[in-house]
Specification:
- InterPro entries: YwqG-like_sf (IPR035948).
- By secondary structure, the protein is α+β, with helices and mostly antiparallel strands.
- The protein has two domains: 174 residues, no CATH class; 126 residues, no CATH class.
- It is 14% helix and 18% strand.
- A six-stranded antiparallel beta sheet has the order 10-1-11-12-13-14, with no helix packed on it.
- Helix 2 runs antiparallel to helix 3.
- The longest helix has 16 residues.
- The radius of gyration is 21 Å and the shape is globular.
- The two termini are 30 Å apart.
């Protein structure tokens, strides 16, 4: 089913014409539970990977706040809890029986960290035909994103980007290696999702605007509060009118708890531009106007383990974003990652 972002509550560029030239297109990916194949765009789905190409691994140091677990442990733990949440229960009945509780404890106990290379985990596969405005190197029609599902520097997974020509893949790799270690809580393991790309218009977060303009937007937002003082007030522009939440391509950076910093390519000095955003949820209490029209009615019956706002079940830090930036001069230059 397609997803439709409601029109913004206010045409902010009409009220503040200085914003008009800063408008950018972003493509909200709207990942939803599915069983995507290798020739479909997806989050957490299988990749169109050549059988003769070595599967990438991570050899960087890892940060282990808790013992790592296996990918199979994460999948089994989620399946156990999903079944439990969907099962009808009496008012005083526990979610898990003693045997299930013991199994859940075993699955979450973890194991000693491996010291060798850790195979990467598929995060997203984007066919350019499905994502308006997405462009890659000459001849490439497919972007694949993988990461090592453990914490690295800045407490985030280490991502890699691969561009390829899907027509030239040939024989496919059907049984890619799984990571040996995954973060203890499985926060970096995306569940398989089909995508429903939708272009939207974004404007910069207040942090990236001239100070005077940001101050006027804040003052204007204060004037939108209800008579009882409710509403986002000064943060109205930031939450509802600037940067769209959720997994997306392009657009602006979702700056929030940290200030923007210069992000220039070390190879050529060009300013990086946003390519791909991983979000910990598609909406929250402060961004209700971004909820797609098709998701506004609460689901009938139990929803299981997955929150409706987070079908991939990925959590970055305490509910943050991981954004990947690329150099506009060359796709061969290193990309940049930031948690915001």
């Amino acid at each position: 089913m397609a997803r439709t972002t409601p029109p913004r509550p206010v045409d902010i560029a009409a009220l503040f014409p200085e914003l008009a030239p800063l408008a950018r297109q972003a493509v909200r990916l709207h990942p939803r539970p599915g069983e995507p194949g290798v020739r479909e765009s997806s989050v957490g789905g299988p990749l169109l990977w050549p059988a003769g190409e070595e599967w990438p691994v991570c050899t960087e140091p890892h940060q282990h706040w808790e013992p790592p677990v296996s990918l199979d442990d994460v999948r089994r733990r989620r399946a156990l809890l999903e079944a439990a949440w969907l099962r009808p229960r009496a008012p005083e009945e526990n979610l898990l029986d003693p045997e299930q509780r013991a199994l859940l404890d075993r699955l979450g106990a973890g194991h000693p960290a491996h010291t060798g290379p850790n195979p990467l985990l598929p995060v997203a596969q984007l066919y350019l035909r499905d994502v308006p405005g997405l462009a890659g190197p000459a001849g490439a029609d497919l972007l694949q994103v993988l990461w090592c599902p453990l914490d690295h520097d800045e407490a985030m997974p280490a991502a890699r980007l691969f561009w390829r020509d899907s027509a030239g893949v040939g024989e496919l790799l059907t049984d890619p290696p799984a990571p040996l270690d995954v973060d203890h809580y499985g926060n970096y393991v995306p569940e398989p999702c089909a995508l429903h790309p939708e272009p939207v218009t974004e404007y910069p977060a207040p942090h990236e605007l001239p100070e005077e303009l940001a101050a006027r937007l804040h003052e204007w937002g204060e004037g939108t509060k209800a008579a009882d003082g409710s509403g986002p007030g000064g943060a109205y522009y930031q939450y509802e009118l600037s940067v769209a939440p959720g997994w997306k391509v392009g657009g602006w950076g979702p700056w929030s708890f940290c200030d923007p910093c210069p992000m220039d390519c070390p190879e050529c000095g060009a300013a990086y531009r946003p390519l791909f955003t991983v979000d910990s949820g598609e909406w929250d209490g402060g961004s209700g106007s971004w909820i797609p029209l098709e998701d506004r009615e609460p689901p009938a019956g139990p929803t299981g383990l997955r929150r409706p706002s987070d079908p991939p079940m990925v959590q970055i830090g305490r509910g943050y974003h991981l954004q990947l930036y690329v150099c506009p001069s060359s796709f061969d230059h290193p990309h940049y990652a930031a948690v915001q």
